[in-house]
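Q: Please design a sequence for this.
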């Protein structure tokens, strides 16, 4: 019977940036597959609200939360200490936390562009390294990095953001090769515009919205649940022979033709 290939019962997932948007949708997706989740984000109030909602929706699963800033290395170490204290190792790590400041390249301050790197890239690298001993306690575990189409082609997100997302994909490939012998699969997803609080500002401009839709073959904005579904697949035993890959969740944006 192949049903176990589509379940995550008994597994523990750590998800960063999990209080809203894509991160919260990923938490809900993995809970639906039977996993217990440990959610990290900076906003404690949003985290508490998310935990209450998820605990009510999935009463048979554990939902734990910790307010922390993944851009801060002391917080990163504290997150992994918290995981080690609360779970028997770790099965799944979802590096979803990210941030951005959109400007012309010459207008960034050093603190601004370095902050984007710290949040989007260095946090994922360090959390992956810190989590490695916990992930390898199990015969098979997985990391999924939430990237962006801006790491593959030029979009109007600002140069530092695109740089971090491109590096995140290369990190995914390298760790996939290096850690395959340890039983750790490493994959990524690359969303285009997804309907979240962060994208509501740019997409509220009618002219800009029409430009985005015109470049998207499916002629609509994606939903957080659609990214979460791709992440969920990459976490499942059903994806046991998939590593080093990046799945675009983009409505065909990267394949646009005329």
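A: Design:
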């Amino acid at each position: 019977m192949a049903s176990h290939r589509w379940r995550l019962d008994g597994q523990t997932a750590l998800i960063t940036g999990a209080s809203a948007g894509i991160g919260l949708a990923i938490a809900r997706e993995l809970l639906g597959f039977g996993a217990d989740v440990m959610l990290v984000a900076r906003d404690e109030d949003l985290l508490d609200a998310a935990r209450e909602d998820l605990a009510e929706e999935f009463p048979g699963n554990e939902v734990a939360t910790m307010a922390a800033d993944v851009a801060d290395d002391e917080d990163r170490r504290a997150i992994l200490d918290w995981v080690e204290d609360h779970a028997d190792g770790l099965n799944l790590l979802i590096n979803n936390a990210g941030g951005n400041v959109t400007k012309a390249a010459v207008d960034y301050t050093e603190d601004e562009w370095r902050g984007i790197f710290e949040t989007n890239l260095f946090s994922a690298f360090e959390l992956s390294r810190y989590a490695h001993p916990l992930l390898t306690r199990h015969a098979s575990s997985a990391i999924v990095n939430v990237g962006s189409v801006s790491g593959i082609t030029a979009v109007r997100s600002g140069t530092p953001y695109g740089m971090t997302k491109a590096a995140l994909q290369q990190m995914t490939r390298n760790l996939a090769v290096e850690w395959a012998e340890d039983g750790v699969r490493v994959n990524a997803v690359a969303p285009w515009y997804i309907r979240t609080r962060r994208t509501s500002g740019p997409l509220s401009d009618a002219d800009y919205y029409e430009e985005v839709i015109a470049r998207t073959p499916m002629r609509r904005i994606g939903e957080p649940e659609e990214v979460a579904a791709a992440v969920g697949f990459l976490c499942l035993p059903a994806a046991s022979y998939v590593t080093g890959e990046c799945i675009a969740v983009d409505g065909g944006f990267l394949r646009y033709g005329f």
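Q: Thanks. Anything notable?
A: Strands lie at 12-16, 36-41, 63-67, 92-95, 141-146, 184-191, 246-249. The mean pLDDT is 96.
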